[in-house]
């Protein structure tokens, strides 16, 4: 992830300038002493917005909140998240494949090529899912999980 440091520093500098410039103009606010005025002016002058990638990551974190809150080891949590992500990608690829198969506007050769490509991608994703399941089955006995933790793993896999 790349962070534009100069942009952030510039915005912070602008916020500080606004704070000092508005500090004198806030003397007329009732009920606020100098420190509260400064804090309020600073809050009013700062604004943070998330990029689309940030919003997507936030949504993904919310989706996996049940996994994060479980009392399972981190290795199991990571595998469960990977399995969920692969299942979602497989479903999306299946939908894309069905859309191409039912698209009458494509010429037969282009349709055949797209179907072959999508089937290859789908097979690759299914192979990755099988590998993730195999890895999970391999590490579960080694971690010595309790029966309750094993049930939790099973329930999280079903979601």
General description of the model:
It is a single chain. By secondary structure, the protein is an all-alpha fold. It has 2 domains: 5-45; 52-158, no CATH class. 79% of the residues lie in helices and 0% in strands. The longest helix is centred in the C-terminal third of the chain and has 36 residues, at 108-143. Residues 27-32 have low confidence and may be disordered.
In short:
The chain is mainly alpha-helical and 159 residues long.
Low-confidence sequence ranges: 27-32
Q: Provide the structure class.
A: mainly alpha
Assess the beta-strand content as a share of residues: under 5%
Order of helices and strands: HHHHHHH
Summed over residues and divided by their number, the pLDDT gives a mean of 82
Annotation field: number of helices: 7
What's the domain count?
Answer: 2
Write the layout of secondary structure elements.
Blueprint: H1 5-25, H2 34-45, H3 52-63, H4 65-69, H5 74-101, H6 108-143, H7 147-158
Task: Name a few traits of the molecule.
159 residues; single chain; 2 domains; mainly alpha
């Amino acid at each position: 992830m790349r962070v534009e440091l100069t942009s952030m520093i510039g915005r912070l500098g602008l916020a500080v300038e606004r704070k000092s410039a508005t500090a004198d103009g806030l003397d007329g606010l009732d009920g606020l002493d100098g420190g509260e005025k400064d804090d309020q002016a600073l809050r009013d002058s700062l604004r943070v917005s998330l990029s689309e990638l940030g919003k997507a990551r936030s949504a993904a974190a919310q989706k996996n909140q049940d996994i994060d809150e479980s009392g399972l080891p981190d290795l199991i949590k990571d595998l469960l998240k990977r399995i969920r992500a692969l299942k979602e990608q497989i479903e999306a690829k299946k939908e894309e494949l069905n859309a191409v198969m039912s698209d009458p506007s494509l010429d037969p050769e282009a349709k055949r090529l797209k179907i072959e490509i999508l089937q290859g991608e789908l097979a690759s994703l299914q192979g990755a899912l099988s590998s993730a399941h195999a890895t999970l089955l391999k590490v579960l006995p080694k971690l010595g999980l309790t029966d309750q933790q094993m049930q939790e793993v099973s329930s999280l896999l079903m979601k």
